[in-house]
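Response to reviewer comment R2.3. The reviewers asked that we include at least one raw input/output pair. We reproduce the pair for Aminopeptidase P N-terminal domain-containing protein here without editing.
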Amino acid sequence: MNTFTRLSWKSNRRCCRLLFGNKHWGRFFHDITLQTACYETTQPVIGQPSPLTHPHLLKPNELVPGFTKKDFIERRDRLAEALVRLKPNGTHLVLIPAAMTQYMSDKIPYVFRQNTDFRYLTGCLEPDSALLLIIKPDGSHKSKLFMRDKNAHTELWEGPRTGVDVAPQLFGIDEAKSINALESELKESAKNCTFWYDFRNPAHRNIHNSVVSFLSNSGSKCLESPIKLIHELRLIKSKAEQDLMLRSAQITSDAITQTIRNTEVGHTEHQLFAMVDYHCRMNGAEYLAYPPVVAAGNNANIIHYINNTQKIMEGELILMDAGCELHGYCSDITRTWPVSKQFTPLQQTLYEIVLDVQTNLISLCSEEKSLDELFKLMCVMLGKRLKEAHVLTKAADSMTLEEMAFKFCPHHVSHYLGMDVHDTGTINRTVHLQEGMVITVEPVFDLYCRDICQREK
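Raw output as returned:
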């Protein structure tokens, strides 16, 4: 009953052996081969999903889900404008590398994740690439994308590459060249320019080596990092970005809800990890945005506990900190629930205190507040609520309450969220909130200070 088939993706040829000579199967394979050949002649195969190959992911004219190439052109325009405002004199040369494929062992790659700033400015999902912007004093600029060359043998193993012929039209850039030409292009273009490159945290080792070679030979001293300016752009999310982030959060929320419903005594933390991962992927996420914290009992007092190996016991609380990544945008949600389906009175009291503090903090998010101000408010509110619940009884004044609350919540209450989980890391937490920012609000009550609780009680 078995059928052994090999289809040629490059021509109409087919080679099939049917054990029972089924003519209908033969016609079926012939049709597949003809359709494949027709597809290849009408549309170039590229190195990432397209509306033609992945209509379930991309709408017509979208470069990546939710965004057209016009969106990326506008982002590059805004970066050019920001650079000229900051340094109005002279020409600017901006280099943003893609990420490189990382390997967990010999020939076994990790799942590839694109360098966030490169993805934000290009929409290109291929490794071993680089964006070069040449910006004139009037803000006009030329964009060049450096990519891997087409290679039939490598593409047989790793999948198609876009190549330099297709890239300009696909990504809306002015010119595409081989990545091998990058260093010579830098030497040619960088004369009398301010060179913008993240030298401190290089995204790509080989490209960084090319930059080092270029700088050592050119003697250029005008080196700046563009990361802060790019982060300022990324900090304010467009409507399309907000929609993707909302969907990412909904996927994670639903996945955690399903995990809560299916939690049983005797499960391991790793099984709950598997549940939330499964439900996120089944609802459209590519993968989890970070290794989740799945912490039962006292493990929840380890802020970044990711071993997830312990068995869950009767009467314990489970803390899960998880998020997914959807088309380049992340979510970050923390939930706590009782494995026995019911809180003890003390657990219920502490849970409601933290929930009340979170609800009040969300209502206070406005353009008058910064993340640091939210953190200070959190400490005041948490200390007050703990005293009202007689968890803390000896604190004499509000300052003492605030200090005590900090011992129970030893990390910041908020961070920026976006294409990265800890998004736009160069943006200070003293910046006032603005419309379009996305932040987390995550107060906690860590019982690693339970000895203090006992003394206070």
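The chain has 14 helices and 18 strands. The first strand starts at residue 3 and ends at 7. Further pairs are available on request from the corresponding author.
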